[in-house]
Design a protein that fits this description.
The strands form 2 sheets. This protein has a 6-stranded mixed β-sheet. Strands 7-6-8-9-10-11 form a 6-stranded parallel β-sheet, sandwiched between helices. The protein is an alpha/beta fold. It is built from 12 helices and 12 strands. It starts with a strand and ends with a strand.
């Protein structure tokens, strides 16, 4: 076959220390560190295959890539690609799956434990001299709670949600999976969305961002959280109304929140989520839950495998497009 032109639009979203294995097919490889929205059309004009992590591929942009045959996502989420447009153009879109099945759950519990035991508040108080001032071997300025015996509500039951549940059970937590908000009747092994909000001590989000889930945790949902839970979000920022989150923290509707995501990434200096850093019971990390060295290597190899499978006329991990 003629060499394929493979264009990676945002190589810098992966660490430079991680090698990206080249697909074993004749190809020309073009890697851009970053790509602004106004640069996308020009850079994909002659591409046969696009690799993207977070660069948006809208319908208008895709129309300007006449040779495009495949989009290889360097991520699981698909919200940055117009899948309908890809279906219409018969462009195969393949994502990577289950590569973060250890790193995201571990980060989820790092946030959970840090908040449940007030680790950051205690660390800061020690740095401020409080331990010396206390005059004894310990002090009790901030509450410390065990995870054991508490109830974890999980929203999203894919590989990550299940992996979080497995760790939670090892901590002797009770686990309940939330049914869809619009579920008409009880589904076996699921708990109603409202009941999960009312009865959980910790709520962790592990669902995709789409029209059904966007803003699914807002003022009305926070008002239902009778047990003042921790809210952990390592999924997508748009799942939670950030203005409502600020109110929930300010009024004590929740006991704390740990987020690895925001509605805009990176958030500008005036972004609402950055205001939440004034709360000692709020932790924000820069979308790195997925980013263990082991996970990124696995992801890079899976991107290579997806491209090679497409070239063998046997595409895998297909989320859009028609083949044949």
């Amino acid at each position: 076959m003629d060499p394929l032109r493979i264009v990676f639009l945002d190589r810098d979203t992966l660490p430079a220390s991680i090698d990206i294995p080249a697909p074993a097919v004749p190809h020309e490889w073009v890697a851009h560190a970053r790509t602004r929205p106004d640069q996308v059309a020009e850079r994909i004009l002659d591409a046969d295959i696009i690799i993207t992590n977070k660069v948006a591929l809208t319908a208008d942009v895709l129309q300007q890539a006449p040779r495009l045959r495949m989009v290889a996502l360097a991520a699981t989420g698909t919200d940055n690609v117009d899948l309908d447009a890809c279906n219409q153009r018969r462009i195969i879109v393949s994502n990577v799956r289950d590569y973060a099945v250890h790193t995201v759950p571990e980060h989820t519990f790092a946030l959970m434990l840090a908040l449940r035991r007030n680790l950051l508040a205690y660390r800061q108080s020690v740095a401020d001299g409080r331990w010396h001032e206390s005059g004894q071997f310990c002090y009790f300025d901030f509450p410390v709670r065990d995870l054991a015996g508490s109830t974890l509500g999980i929203i999203g039951r894919g590989a990550l949600g299940e992996a979080v549940a497995e760790i939670a059970r090892a901590f002797d937590m009770r686990v309940q999976f939330a049914a869809r908000r619009d579920a008409g009747s009880p589904v076996e092994d699921y708990t109603s969305f409202t009941h999960v909000l009312r009865t959980s001590d910790v709520i962790s989000l592990h669902c995709p961002l789409n029209d059904q889930t966007r803003g699914m945790i807002g003022a009305a949902e926070f008002a239902l959280m009778d047990r003042k839970p921790l809210l952990i979000n390592t999924a997508r920022g748009g799942l939670v109304d950030e203005q409502a989150l600020e109110h929930a923290l300010q009024t004590g509707q929740i006991s704390g929140a740990g987020f690895d995501v925001a509605t805009r990434e990176p958030p500008p200096p005036d972004h609402p989520i950055l205001r939440l850093l004034r709360f000692p019971n709020f932790i924000l990390t820069p979308h790195v839950a997925w980013a263990s060295e082991e996970a990124i290597r696995a992801m890079a190899h899976q991107v290579r495998d997806n491209i090679e499978a497409f070239c063998r006329d046997a595409p895998r991990n297909v989320v859009a497009g028609f083949h044949g």
